[in-house]
Amino acid sequence: MPRIILFTLLIFNLAFAKAYATTTQQDTTHIARKVYRATRISNPPKIDGKPFEQVWDRVTTGGNFIMAQPNNGNAERDTHKTEFKVAYDDDAIYVAGFMYDDNPESVLRQFSQRDQVFEQADLFGFFINTYNNQINQTRFYATSANALGDAIAEGNNQDFSYNVVFLSEVSFDERGWYVEMKIPYRTLRFPEQNVQDWSFQILRIIKSLNEEYTYNYIDVTTGTDTQYDALLTGIENINPPLRLNLYPYVSVIHDRFDGIESTSFNAGMDLKYGISDAFTLDATLIPDFGQVAFDQVVLNLGPFEQTFNENRAFFTEGTDLFRKGDLFFSRRIGQRPSGSRSLDVLDNEDIIDNPRNSQLLNAIKVTGRTEKGLGIGILNAITEKTSATIENTIDGTRREVETEPLTNYNMLVLDQQYGNNSSIALVNASTLRNGSFTDANSNALVLNHNNKAATDNISAEVKMTNRFTPDGTQTGFATEANWRKTSGKWRPRLGHFFKDRNYNPNDLGRNFQTNFHTFAADLNYVQLTQKGIFNRYEISLRTRHRRAASPGFHTGSEINLNPFFITKERFAFGADLNYYTDRKDQFESRIEDRVVQYGQGVFTGGFISSDYRKKFAIDIRAGRFKRLQEKEHNYDFRVAPRYRFSDQFLLIYSLNWDKNNDRMSYVTLTDDDTTSILSERDTHSVENRLTGTYNFNNKQALSISFRNFWSRATFSREFKELQLDGSLEDSNYTLEDDFNPDANFNVWNLDLSYRWRFAPGSEASLLYRNSISNFDNEGAIQFEESLDNLFMEPVRHNLSLRITYFLDVNAARKWFKA
């Protein structure tokens, strides 16, 4: 092991020398920026995808696109020229794209729905930066099948949760395909001044050729995409409009479960209001989350809670600012009441009602960025008081037990951008609960700095959490620091991560492990342009050294080698080769400062992914883990074939199979909670998933989503007692009659939905949901028998209809004036 570490450090030393030798030769400030002048028009064009009206004749044509991928810097093909025009009036920006192609029949045209723009279809993108800061962009996409997409971007990161209402249409003829867009000013944020200082970029992706082109040259080996915008001039004497959009909705839900049926009607409204030219208020009044996707529940036998992705649109749209500092996990809002798991029930009492979620009363968020680059984000949400009902079985009397009080959740983010794609942010998250419950406050200072040449990045975070409990205040700290090269072929990285044992942002954030120091050193070799048979490839060497913070001791180290390749024909493959030293797990025992020891291990695995442009494609991944001097071993396998029956119908199936044997695992604590009982555990999991979409057009789709997850766990009855030094000794512990650690978990979810965007920003959705779940202690059960048992459980049938209408108040005012 010392030789391996010495060899690794030698490689890093050579790489750093190589990296710094080339750093001073690169400077993105010298990259030429094209200049395009937009044309003011008096009569807007008809948005029909045919930009041949007379109004377009006097608008300046832009062209001479440059290849971004795979041969960065090459001129565009003579057979695939790209041109564009940009016009504007008092209400909107108008964009025309001319994507010429000597064989229009070869243009891929897979249908997809909103924001699904990277399917097997050609793509046109118009990216605009209304502050010309080379950091932020608002992106508007249209595919050759006219699927629309919009996103906000910061550097190389783009967020498709951003949603606005704009118009786009496409058409084809014998010369190629065309797009027309209308981007209303209400979708943009810009300062109120006579002459606008904007920048922009235009992207074209030709799927059949596997090529990408941009109007302004992007050096893919240095910096970030947003640093290479062209200048957009000529936009003058426009005013930010009143930005007040209303999204009223009505919904009806019919639910049937275990012989009980219920029907509910709901109505409410979401609101989006432009407070100023830079800031927007979003509010959800009488929220309705009845049609969110199901959670990916698994059998959780680990020491940490199971958490799920956010599916509620209000908490996913436009929340990029709130992600800074990693203090915000929106699923905490409306989560399971904190007192619902520990109800004090007498022998003669039953729990009649114990709500699994707190009801969200309302939520608002204010977001925006000033002309000087100060981003401000405020989010506030309130959940109502939640109580459980307990009934006395003797006299029938009932009592209410408060499990979660009226609670206020708040986020505040101040993010100042500067220089070339750099920023410093101050983040605060607070949770205030009514009464004698725990309150919490967390703070973070976040730095992301790129040097002027865009060759190096430094990031750092300092965080503090305070939890105010009835017993006193608990304060915790965490820090993070990273340096990485962001240019050239050799890209090393160094990092350090620290969390003390009291760090706990979980009242509004999400964090699992604490009390550690982690030292990281990475070395990546990247080939981002075409070379030989490869479009690009990357070879990554990563090392991690982990220690407990208090008391300090080595908890484990690892070395990972991960090569990745993708050919000209879009066939991708790679490998995972990992070595792990002896490990001391601080959390498996469920007792503070009591570690469980595991020996050295090796993981080997790999994957392949075929060309998605073909009707049939497949993804395969497999791996094996083995502890070198212990019995534990694991196999996992995933296969996901997909078939595109037509440009309208795509079906994807995936099978995930995992088997882990002889892992020393936690079983229970002794009666006095001072000793952990462990034994060897075998687990076996199988997940089947099927997703498919039939697109009638780019506005109507029928989708199916099916998931069946099964997992079982069997514990050896040869129990061990964990000693103070981490060793294990045979135990005379025996299972009590009412306790069996074995587990069998099976869940079935089926969603069938029809969605129709009947007008811009307006949608009707009809959803049928079918779900079953079962948990028992039959750890030796087989999959088929478990499935039979599952279907003996009651089935939940849920049918819901929701209609949302988009109303632009500014446009409505004009209608009434007319």
TrEMBL record:
It comes from Nonlabens mediterrranea. Pfam families: CBM9_1, DUF5916. It comes from the Bacteria. Residues 47-196 form the Carbohydrate-binding domain. Keywords: Signal. Residues 1-17 form the signal peptide. Gene3D superfamilies: 2.60.40.1190. Transmembrane segments: none annotated. This is Carbohydrate binding family 9 domain-containing protein. Residues 240-816 form the DUF5916 domain. InterPro entries: Carb-bd_dom_fam9, DUF5916.
